[in-house]
Records
---
Amino acid sequence: MDEKAIEKKTIFSGIQPSGELTLGSYLGAIKNWVELSDTYNCYYCIVDMHAITVRQNPSDLRRRTLHQLAQYIACGLDPMKNTIFIQSHVPAHAELAWVLNCYTMFGELSRMTQFKDKSAKNADNINAGLFTYPALMAADILLYQTDLVPVGEDQKQHVEITRDIAQRFNGVYGEVFRLPEPYIPKVGARIMSLTSPENKMSKSDKDPGGCIYIMQSPDDITRCFKRAVTDCETCVRFDPSDKPGVSNLMQIYSVATGASFGEIEKEFEGKGYGDFKVKVGESVVELLRPIREEAERLIADKTYLESIYKEGAEKASRASAKILRKVYKKIGFVER
Ligand code: TRP
């Protein structure tokens, strides 16, 4: 049989350990990653090198990186089926990023919306790493000949610049890199902040009540949902532009329970938002309970986590070595 025909397509994605994982990262990303595990050859990375483009407290960064690994696994990502690793453990990422920096233009980096946002937010630390962040992300993706990159809308521009960089390189040296495409899952939920539902739920949210964390206690979760912003209409109806708060809660309830929007509207017909918010909170508590408990168990098992990230780094190093060697050869570096 033709080997190529049965070869699985490759997926790469990553999340920065710059904060604890949120309900949004679970429902919007990791839950989908789990579903892709069987069909694709998947690399899921903890991108600690990207995280240091804004100042991090060292012990927090170390703790969050390990927590993130435990939570990936607790969310159902199987380390036997996927390559799960920490970015800084695979030096090829830094090496290829340097090369790609030399094929990335000042002008195109200046147009990146994330750079503009982040430099506005970190005006006292607009460092070169923040600026060349997309070249490192391009290295992450291109090292594995990735076909598809599951990302949210906000990262699409970074996948596009990755394609531009790859095309520019291929234009000079021949077909070296495969051109990746963003993969925006159809059923992926875009979870918004509970207190400002016009914005994505984010670990960098200034208002602590807007964001639910995977590891948060049931009491805290319940409290956040009770305080969630709704509107003055008192009618549970899905309408993201007119009723962003209520629609977001419906979206969450729908993924947590499997109920359709129609079913949810019927369930809460004639009832107040109070009831509705309590029910949504309960559904999230029950959704996250087994994940939190499993993650806590894994966090306590340092030896297990270490064996997983070491094996992940080995697999990723092996998979990426070939392409880096090819790049070095093409650009004229003497073979080591
Ligand atoms: N920039 C991404 C984010 O902040 C994280 C990331 C880094 C990533 N490298 C990646 C995502 C490669 C997908 C593929 O969300």
---
Amino acid sequence: MRIDVVSIFPEYLAPLELSLIGKARQDGLLDLSVHDLRDFTTDRHRTVDDTPYGGGAGMVMKPEPWAQALEAVAATGPGADASAGAPAQKPVLIVPSPAGERFTQAIAHELAEEDQLVFACGRYEGIDERVLEWAAEHFTVRPMSLGDYVLNGGEVAVLAMVEAVGRLLPGVVGNPESLVEESHSDGLLEYPVYTKPSTWRDREVPAVLLSGNHGKIAQWRRHEQYRRTAERRPDLLEAFDAGALPRADRTAFADLGYDVVDGRLRRRPEA
Ligand code: 6GU
């Protein structure tokens, strides 16, 4: 996969040289470049922002440097040589913004199938809206938000999204099994984990995990996932397919205050 990140703070993206993602780049699994938006300006001051039409606080990013930068990264991307036969996939342009669609594990999986991702890091009050309209001719444009809070710019969000997508690329995570049993892979939060010693500061590891009974362990872990999800993220249970749950799992949900109705979990009204 090819990834291009455009930012006025390219140094902010330095952590992408570390750890799993850095290793994936070294191994040639991920071709990632960071570009300085100011390199696509033409004035002496390398200006990237200006005052907003209509007034108001803050500054808006000017359209032309963005168009130059995005044209340059598209022209050198894997889909640029469309004349040479196979119809090229449009690169995906991800615009980090608190006003974007919520980024999820499902979207990370979608993006991991793409040939080229381009991240456009806005700062200030954002990028002139016409850039996103114009870019739709060359890219699949996806404004993306990490959640309902405000960051100063897209860079930190890009670190998160590149890591979430990059670890799904073939060969990046050493043991692909570890992708299966993690939070959100099945719409639930992960079960709690323990390691040695079995007693630590008077606290015992749950006995079932020492039992050697793999069926019991799997069931206990599943029920812990239900308990945690009900406690911390009950919103996730609305989408949970409870249609084919074994009796013991229905009982576990009943104990948490949920009944199964038409294959969905329904919170029992408080008595
Ligand atoms: Cl993706 N960008 C910015 N600037 N702020 C955010 C965000 C993204 N997600 C949540 N807050």
